[in-house]
Amino acid sequence: MTDAPQSDAEAARWHYKPEGEVAMNPLFHWPPRPMAVLRWYAAYWLALSSTTFALALAVLGYLLFLPPLEQMAQLSPGWMLQVWLLNLIPHVATAGLLHLWLYRWRGQGQRFKFDARDPAADNGTFTFRNQVQDNMFWTVTSGISFWTVMQWLVFWAMANGYAPVIGLASNPVWFLLMFPILVVWSSFHFYWVHRALHWPPLYRLAHALHHRNVNVGPWSGISMHPVEHLLFYTNFLIHFLLASHPLHVLFRGYMQSIHPVFSHSGFHKLYVADAERAKMGDFFHQLHHRYFECNYGTVEMPWDRWFGSFHDGSEEGTRTTRARRSRMYGR
């Protein structure tokens, strides 16, 4: 199943392939395309998307469950447990329900599925010989733990004056701008950390665990080695440099951790009750999992274009990526 033209030879490698070249954020296009930029951001912030979902989780978590900063000036088990649960419960619920819908109940069959294969079972590549159990183990034991520890550090620093804090009333413009700034910062940070993780010694030590998932699923998103999680979650350090609010810290965490549940779902769109409900998967990153040495960043910033590692989803992109990999590894 594909909506790509029949002449697109790359489409034969996929069960479903989106039509045309992989779309990138037009913010960095020259000459400027202001209307395209507005449409791009409207699709993220004014529609059902992983971004608006992360924002909704952050608002609910902040208003209903997050303790006030003054309570977080001391590292005490009470508030630390609350923060861990604020991460654990939404992540497990989101990844679990999406996995059930897509793979156990097969609620939308194979509609919009990039790779026709199911998650691997009885495969010695994975912990417990099972891809889903492997992904769940590394997500919960390592991923959510590192995510939570970094938030503990930021909240404690904010409460003690070591990290700058702003409020909506005191600086509404900066408060609102911080949300898109954090998305761009995450893309910048992810690209450089990800490139480092493809350095062969670091790849063998850590990143290879994530790349067991050639055919990804919802639990694959933050299924990583602890060393990779340590590097991945250093993006929380931005809160020591830019004035922010606890709501931004929660949003940062959900964007960093729950967004990959959707981008690694293996499906381009969510299809419920005979209708397309939301864009879900990320073909840009799906190409990375299949071809490895391409698309290290995200579609938010054109680092891969600028540094020659962009795969646009075409047959020519595959040939270029394979030639680049041959040069890198001498074969």
For the structure shown, list the relevant keywords:
331 residues, mainly alpha, two-stranded antiparallel ribbon, 52% helix, globular
Structure commentary:
This protein has helices at residues 34-45, 50-64, 77-104, 131-159, 172-197, 200-210, 226-232, 246-257, 259-263, 283-291, 303-306, 315-329, and strands at residues 269-272, 275-279. The protein has 331 residues and is mostly helical. Helix 3 runs antiparallel to helix 4 (131-159) and helix 4 (131-159) packs antiparallel against helix 8 (246-257). The chain is globular and about 60 Å long. A two-stranded antiparallel ribbon has the order 1-2. The mean pLDDT is 94. The protein is built from 12 helices and 2 strands, in the order αααααααααββααα.
Tell me briefly what this model is.
The protein is an all-alpha fold and 331 residues long. The chain has helices at 34-45, 50-64, 77-104, 131-159, 172-197, 200-210, 226-232, 246-257, 259-263, 283-291, 303-306, 315-329; strands spanning 269-272, 275-279.
Largest sheet: 2 strands, antiparallel
Helix and strand run: HHHHHHHHHEEHHH
Q: What low-confidence regions span 5 or more consecutive residues with pLDDT below 50?
A: none
State the oligomer: single chain
Number of strands: 2
Count of individual helical segments: 12
Roughly what is the average pLDDT, rounded to an integer? 94
Q: Structural class of the secondary elements?
A: mainly alpha
Measured between the Cα atoms of the first and last residue, the distance is 33 Å
The fraction of residues assigned to DSSP E strands is under 5%
Give the number of domains.
1
Shape: globular
Helical proportion, percent range? 40-55%
Radius of gyration: 20 Å
Strand order of the largest sheet: 1-2
